[in-house]
TrEMBL record:
The lineage of its organism: Bacteria, Bacillati, Actinomycetota, Actinomycetes, Propionibacteriales. Pfam families: Hydrolase. PANTHER family: PHOSPHOGLYCOLATE PHOSPHATASE, PHOSPHONOACETALDEHYDE HYDROLASE. NCBIfam families: PhnX-like. It comes from Kribbella yunnanensis. This is Phosphonatase-like hydrolase. InterPro entries: HAD-like_hydrolase_sf (IPR050155), HAD-like_sf (IPR036412), HAD_sf (IPR023214), PhnX-like (IPR022468).
Length: 227
């Protein structure tokens, strides 16, 4: 029986609408990488391929210099936060109802992100979601970000699920799927509202692919009834 749902934010429960790429463009521009240049295109391709990963890890891979990576990450978080503050932040249609439905059914919910905690909190404040979930986690609070299982395992401990097999992980990226598989989650569901398509999600190990997180309660409740 599923006792805990660990849900990604941007692209899964929160609409991205290109905000990550816009903030990335600002951050990488501050490092002297011009929009439309070969280096920019190469880096943007890497950002798209690694959607869901901790952003500082992405910048470390791109820049190969810790100081530059830290500067770029700070610029990214500042740019993304400004976009949120300007009103460019909205929930995925039906996401809030899905979370409430899960909790009403006795399934605990943890929201996770690859962003820094300050950015995560700004998103939650903008949406009025500070009290929506049972637990909110970012990589710094758990140890490592995706594709490592740390955030899922921290949620298992903090919310006292009986076993990792009783956990469902849902996200829009291959890294979300890799995280769920590494954690041993019983259900690893990909959603088609974000960065990656069905083929990428299935190749990364998705046990289910859903059109949206709004379909997750029906899946989890059906699985529980079958057991």
């Amino acid at each position: 029986m599923i006792q805990l749902a660990v849900l990604d934010m941007a692209g899964t429960t929160v609409a991205d609408d290109g905000l990550v790429e816009r903030a990335f463009t600002t951050a990488i521009g501050a490092q002297g990488i011009e929009f439309g240049s070969p280096d920019y295109d190469r880096m943007l391709a890497h950002v798209r391929a690694t959607m869901g990963e901790s952003k500082i890890t992405v910048f470390r891979a791109l820049l190969n210099d810790e100081e530059a990576a830290q500067q770029a990450n700070k610029a990214f978080e500042t740019a993304y936060g400004a976009l949120v503050d300007e009103g460019h932040c909205a929930p995925i249609d039906g996401a809030e109802d899905a979370i409430r439905q899960l909790r009403n059914a006795g399934i605990k919910v943890c929201l996770t992100t690859g962003f820094a905690q300050t950015t995560q909190q700004r998103i939650l404040s903008a949406l009025g979601w500070r009290e929506l979930a049972d637990l909110i986690l970012c990589p710094a609070q758990a140890g490592r970000g995706r594709p490592y299982p740390d955030m899922v395992l921290r949620a298992v401990l903090d919310l006292k699920a009986d076993a990792v097999a009783n956990v469902a992980v849902a996200g829009d990226t291959a890294y979300d799927m890799t995280t769920g598989i590494a954690a041993g989650a019983g259900i690893v569901a990909g959603v088609l509202t974000g960065a990656h398509g069905k083929d990428q999600l299935q190749a990364a190990g998705a046990t289910h692919v859903l059109s949206s997180v709004r379909d997750l309660p029906d899946l989890l409740l059906a699985e529980s009834q079958d057991q």
